[in-house]
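Q: what sequence does this backbone want?
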């Protein structure tokens, strides 16, 4: 079955954007007063092209670094995530491994699950090991955000169609202002990236340019 080109998923499809806006999707939540930065899974397993999970994320990495530098100037809370399991995967679950056997790369204590050095993580920047796509699932992220009084979560990292989308959904469900800088997130599939950004913007977060995020942080 051939797909109607008018239904192509992405911001490039002005007709689809207009259709969604007319029925009431894609409203804007804007920025709040107390933001935090969340960097999702920028570890070697996802950023090294020799990894079965990896892809070229040099662009999103560079843009994430720009955001981190500005956030550190303003002493904003910064959180990182990775995804790592016991060597026997007893903490992963049989059905998850069946669905994603590629998870065999994500072993605790290996270089694959370590954050890339470009991020220059500081001692006061919390690293969260998340067991599933959403950074909120079975982690203490929500309590940490509450402790900091955060009302705005700025999400960068990968993958747009997986962990970024899942985290944005949960952030929205927790009634946080959720912001996704479009150049600071990436995916191994361009079409999946484009479709996910469209849905994120339509349903759960504001998808904005990195420069808009930098201007907002600078003005705090």
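A:
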């Amino acid at each position: 079955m051939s797909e109607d080109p008018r239904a192509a998923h992405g911001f490039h499809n002005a007709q689809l954007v207009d259709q969604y806006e007319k029925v009431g999707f894609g409203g804007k939540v804007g920025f709040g007063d107390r933001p935090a930065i969340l960097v999702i899974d920028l570890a070697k397993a996802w950023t090294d092209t020799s990894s079965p999970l990896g892809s070229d994320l040099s662009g999103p990495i560079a843009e994430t670094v720009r955001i981190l530098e500005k956030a550190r100037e303003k002493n904003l809370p910064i959180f990182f995530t990775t995804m790592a399991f016991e060597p026997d995967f007893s903490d992963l679950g049989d059905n998850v491994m069946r669905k994603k056997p590629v998870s065999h790369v994500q072993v605790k204590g290996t270089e694959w699950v370590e954050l890339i050095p470009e991020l220059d993580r500081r001692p006061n920047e919390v690293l969260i090991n998340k067991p599933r796509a959403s950074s909120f699932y079975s982690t203490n992220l929500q309590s940490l955000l509450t402790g900091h009084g955060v009302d705005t979560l700025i999400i960068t990292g990968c993958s747009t169609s997986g962990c970024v989308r899942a985290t944005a959904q949960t952030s929205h469900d927790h009634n946080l202002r959720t912001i996704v800088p479009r150049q600071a997130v990436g995916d191994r599939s361009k079409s999946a990236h484009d479709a996910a950004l469209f849905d994120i913007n339509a349903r759960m977060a504001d998808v904005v340019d990195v420069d808009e995020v930098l201007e907002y942080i600078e003005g705090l």
